[in-house]
Amino acid sequence: RGMIATLMICIIDQVRLPKEILLHGIYIVDRLLSCHPSINNDRMELMGLTALWLAVKFEYRNAPSAESMVSVLHSGYSATELIESERFACNALEYRLVYPSPASFLREYLIATCWGDDIHTLAWCLIHVSCFENGFVGAKPSLVAAAALMFTRQVFLLDEWTSKHSEVTGYTAEELRSLVGLYKAVIASSNGHRPFEEPFGSPKY
Question: Which positions fall inside the Cyclin-like domain (predicted)?
Answer without folding.
Answer: 6-91, 104-185
